Amino acid sequence: MSGTVQAVRVAKLRRGDLRRCAELEQILFSGDDPWSKAAFAAELDRGHYYVGAYDADENLLGYAGLAVVGRPPEAEAEVHTIGVDPAHQRRGIGRALLLALLGRADQFRATTFLEVRTDNDAAIALYREHGFEIVGLRKRYYQPSGADAHTMRRPPRSTVEE
């Protein structure tokens, strides 16, 4: 069913799902220092905004995280991660997770930044569709693979705009 939209519930990431997040990291980012369960726990402990995408049976299909620093009008947000189980990709889950993060950033009217592998055309297209533009290049950003990353930026938006 590739290409079809899968119904998911996006909600605050549960601590009980951190082991699954780490498992998905191993699958998705094995060549680039995947995050551990402890790394995800540290992100939650710092108060960063993490959400999960859950199916009807409450299985975690994907996760995403955002950090916000400062207050409007100087607030900035950084997308730390978005990951979707490969068995459920190309079904709108990544988009739903991104929209949840952007909704949070918009509450702070924050300029939002992220890094994305330069060879990840699908992700770059998704980010462009949601207002991001490439503003820089980070050579050998991902380790240990040495893959390059684009830095992308989305201007601040108000939750009452448009």
Walk me through the structure:
Keywords: Acyltransferase, Cytoplasm, Ribonucleoprotein, Ribosomal protein, Transferase. Residues 8-157 form the N-acetyltransferase domain. Pfam families: Acetyltransf_1. Belongs to the acetyltransferase family. RimI subfamily. The protein has 4 helices and 7 strands, in the order βααβββαβαββ. With 162 residues, the protein is of the alpha+beta class. The chain has a single domain (9-154), classed as 3-Layer(aba) Sandwich (Aminopeptidase).
Let me know the average pLDDT: 92
Name the quaternary structure.
Answer: single chain
- The low-confidence parts are none
Helix and strand element order: EHHEEEHEHEE
The value of Rg in angstroms is 15 Å
**What is the total tally of β strands?**
7
Strand share of the residues?
A: 25-35%
Distance between the termini: 34 Å
List the helices and strands and how they pair.
Layout (H helix, E strand, L loop, with lengths): L8 E4 L5 H11 L8 H9 L3 E6 L5 E10 L6 E9 L8 H15 L3 E7 L3 H9 L3 E6 L10 E6 L8
Parallel strand pairs: 4-5
Antiparallel strand pairs: 1-2, 2-3, 3-4, 5-7, 6-7
Helix pairs in contact: 1-2
Pfam families: Acetyltransf_1
Keywords: Acyltransferase, Cytoplasm, Ribonucleoprotein, Ribosomal protein, Transferase
InterPro entries: AcTrfase_RimI/Ard1, Acyl_CoA_acyltransferase, GNAT_dom, YpeA/RimI_acetyltransf
